[in-house]
Write a structure and sequence with these properties.
Low-confidence stretches: 1-5
Pfam families: EAL, GGDEF
Largest sheet: 10 strands, mixed
Mean pLDDT: 87
Number of helices: 22
Number of strands: 27
Shape: globular
InterPro entries: CheY-like_superfamily (IPR011006), Cyclic-di-GMP_PDE-like (IPR050706), EAL_dom (IPR001633), EAL_sf (IPR035919), GGDEF_dom (IPR000160), Nucleotide_cyclase (IPR029787), PAS (IPR000014), PAS-like_dom_sf (IPR035965)
Helix content: 40-55%
Strand content: 15-25%
Protein name: EAL domain-containing protein
Organism: Marilutibacter chinensis
């Protein structure tokens, strides 16, 4: 389960203090969790919220008077929903523990212990998602069993289920193959009775092996015998299964009408990719499933590698699209040359390869990945009439009991490939759950070095997106976005590195770089005759002292720019939890003519209350309001409300992430001042929009 930005936490906070509730929401958001909070003003509002929308966690203050704790529990119980309630306290003692247990709360969280609060919320959220997943899985299993039963019955392949050598189920095709009319004629009959006499002894040994839990052969060729005693060549395929909760063997029987050697050749072709000769994706996935199951059962260790050629699109441009298959085939040949005889290799995607090595410890897995990487780095690939060098990025997983799940294994391997590509390629990212701390530390330190290098050697760059005015004369306004250039001159998105920068105290330096370069751009534009306003994002770290204010004053004077042309943006949630520092910073910026605005506005518990304490020059709506805006009347109403209230105080409003013409029409009608988004113009390195 992926928490955080991929899965929002729908949080219901019952607390008399809006500020205290907002502090908890900010704490969780600062931890990387996308929180969608709600706060009832009274018991009726609580009942309406519980009835109208799903929630994940309830945080209820033990001393709340808007809705008493006991009533919260009664309302939650009456809703019939699986909704965990955590009780908020400032400290803890035995009576409070007993009270929480008596009313059915899942636990107690302490306000002065933010890390413990976060961990408790995350644990309860994970448990809730596990329960939800289990219920979905149980329903899915029941539905799958029903469908499988129908499919088996209607299948043209003869299929039977065998328990301890006896028939417990058979479909119509199976009965027809052996000459039976009804299952009652075959129920309880030994499978040995369906085998020609000369094969009985060997087949009896096979059944004994299966009863001991040994894996079945993929194919078993023999002569089968029908009800009338006639024999015919057949192939049996065995698969471990369950029937009505009992372990058994599923048997698929096929008449062997073709030459056996030809049949084997056809089966081999069916499992291969025709361009590369490697296994195809479905065949490889079956092998991976078996390997992961072995790791779960026997605590064995195996290696999975996903391999992609670096700069694939550029390579295709060099050699031509018509030679794409030649390039893939050349990569496959090079891969086969360095693999061992027992390694399993496949074409896993259009230009992605997969390698599975069984019984491989971490050191062996890393050595295999390095062998593959070095083999491509030093090789010249022949693709028809062209020769070229192509490095590869490798994402690997050390499969073991801690990650004995096919989806998790593939997910981690895919992340490794993307991460390796993101920092320039020709790299290996091997995830080992048993050494995750070490691997993560190495990855983080590498990123810290890249960020430090970007600050010191100007590897950051700015992209600019225009803001289009919906009312009044057109102004030249752009928002600046930070990008990082890696070692190969490729762009890296900020979400890849900003969290690491925050954890290692580098955000304040990034803020200085962003603001300084924005002022330089404003100065250059002014000299060229353009009165351009630039919006930039800064972080709450810069509110801690006046160093950024001093830096702005120096840069404005140096580049001949006016403060009115610069707008700084802070997230609403950060201003709420750093209000005094934000107020002081805004006042200092105002002396320079610089405006400070709020972004991600409207997602807090009481956004308008913040505006009465913070003199925001503009507000930018949270981008979640733009999701399917034409079909979401609640979002439309909220936007109109925000616009009306901000206009009363002469504050400008901005809507970002505009996706279509219908949204533009709604925003215009609501009175939004400026809009931006891919629909209007994408962000790019140049300021060349025709306002």
């Amino acid at each position: 389960m992926q928490f955080g930005k991929d899965l929002p936490l729908r949080l219901l906070v019952v607390d008399d203090s809006v500020e205290a509730a907002e502090a908890i929401v900010s704490l969780l958001r600062n931890s990387g969790i996308a929180v969608r909070p709600s706060r009832p003003e009274n018991a009726d509002a609580l009942a309406e919220m519980l009835a109208g929308q799903p929630f994940d966690i309830v945080l209820a203050a033990h001393d709340a008077t808007t809705v008493a704790l006991e009533e919260v529990m009664q309302r939650v119980d009456a809703s019939g929903k699986d909704l965990p309630v955590l009780v908020l306290h400032d400290d803890i003692d035995t009576p409070r523990l007993l009270r929480a247990a008596a009313i059915g709360a899942r636990g107690i969280v302490l306000r002065p212990q933010p890390e413990l609060l976060r961990e408790t919320v995350m644990r309860e959220w994970a448990d809730l998602e596990a329960r939800r997943s289990l219920r979905k899985l149980e329903n899915h299993v029941r539905e799958t069993e029903r469908r499988c039963d129908a499919l088996i019955e209607s299948s043209r392949d003869p299929i039977a289920y065998i328990h301890e050598g006896m028939h417990i189920r058979a479909n119509a095709a199976y009965l027809e193959t052996f000459g039976f009319e009804d299952f009652e004629e075959i129920e309880g009959m030994s499978l040995l009775d369906m085998v020609a006499p000369q094969h009985v002894d060997d087949f009896k040994q096979l059944l004994k092996k299966l009863s001991r839990g040994e894996p079945p052969p993929p194919r078993y060729e023999l002569e089968a015998r029908g009800l009338d005693g006639s024999a015919f060549p057949a192939v049996m395929e065995f698969t471990a299964a369950t029937y009505e909760g009992e372990p058994c063997q599923q048997v698929v029987l096929r008449r062997q009408e073709l030459d056996p050697e030809l049949a084997r050749e056809v089966e081999e072709l069916r499992q291969r990719d025709q361009v590369t000769g490697l296994l195809n994706r479905p065949t490889f996935l079956r092998a991976l499933e078996d390997t992961v199951a072995d790791a779960a059962e026997k605590a064995s260790q195996h290696a999975l590698l996903l391999i992609e050629p670096d700069h694939y699109a550029r390579l295709l441009q060099d050699i031509g699209l018509d030679e794409a298959d030649d390039l893939v085939a050349a990569c496959a040949r090079r891969l086969r040359e360095v693999l061992g005889p027992d390694d399993i290799a496949a074409r896993f995607g259009e230009h992605q390869f997969a390698v599975l090595r069984r019984n491989s410890e971490h050191a062996d897995s890393m050595a295999l990945a390095e062998t593959v990487r070095a083999a491509f780095a030093s090789a010249v690939l022949d693709t028809g009439s062209r020769s070229l060098n192509a490095t590869v990025s490798i994402g690997g997983v050390q499969i073991g009991q801690k990650i004995a799940n096919v989806s998790s294994v593939l997910g981690k391997a895919s992340q490794g490939v993307l991460s390796a590509i993101g920092v320039g390629g020709n790299r290996i990212e091997l995830f080992d759950p048993s050494a995750a701390d070490r691997a993560e530390e190495e990855r983080v330190q590498a990123w810290v070095g890249r960020i430090r290098d970007a600050i010191d050697h100007d590897r950051f760059i700015m992209h600019f997106q225009p803001l289009v005015g919906l009312h009044g004369p057109p102004d030249q306004i752009y928002e600046a976005y930070l990008r990082l250039l890696n070692e190969h001159g490729e762009l890296v998105q900020p979400m890849t590195f900003l969290q690491i920068a925050e954890e290692h105290g580098l955000l304040w330096e990034i803020d200085r770089w962003v603001v300084g370069h924005a002022i330089a751009v404003i100065g250059e534009r002014r000299k060229a005759g353009h009165d351009t306003t630039v919006l930039v994002k800064i972080t709450e770290v810069s509110l801690q002292d006046d160093s950024l204010l001093k830096h702005m004053a120096e840069q404005l004077a140096r580049h001949g720019a006016e403060g009115r042309q610069l707008v700084l943006q802070l997230p609403e949630s950060k201003v709420f939890t750093h209000l005094r520092a934000a107020q002081a910073f805004q006042q200092g910026a105002a002396k320079l003519g610089v405006r400070v605005g709020l972004e991600q506005f409207g997602r807090g518990l009481n956004s308008f209350q913040l505006l009465s304490h913070f003199d925001a020059g503009l507000v930018k709506l949270d981008r979640s309001f733009m999701d399917d805006l034409p079909n979401n009347p609640d979002h439309q109403a909220r936007i109109r409300e925000i616009t009306a209230k901000t206009r009363e105080n002469n504050r400008l409003t901005i809507a970002e992430f505009v996706q279509d013409a219908s949204s533009m029409s709604i925003l215009f009608g609501a009175g939004i001042d400026y809009a931006q988004g891919q629909f209007l113009a994408p962000a790019g390195p140049e300021m060349n929009y025709e306002f």
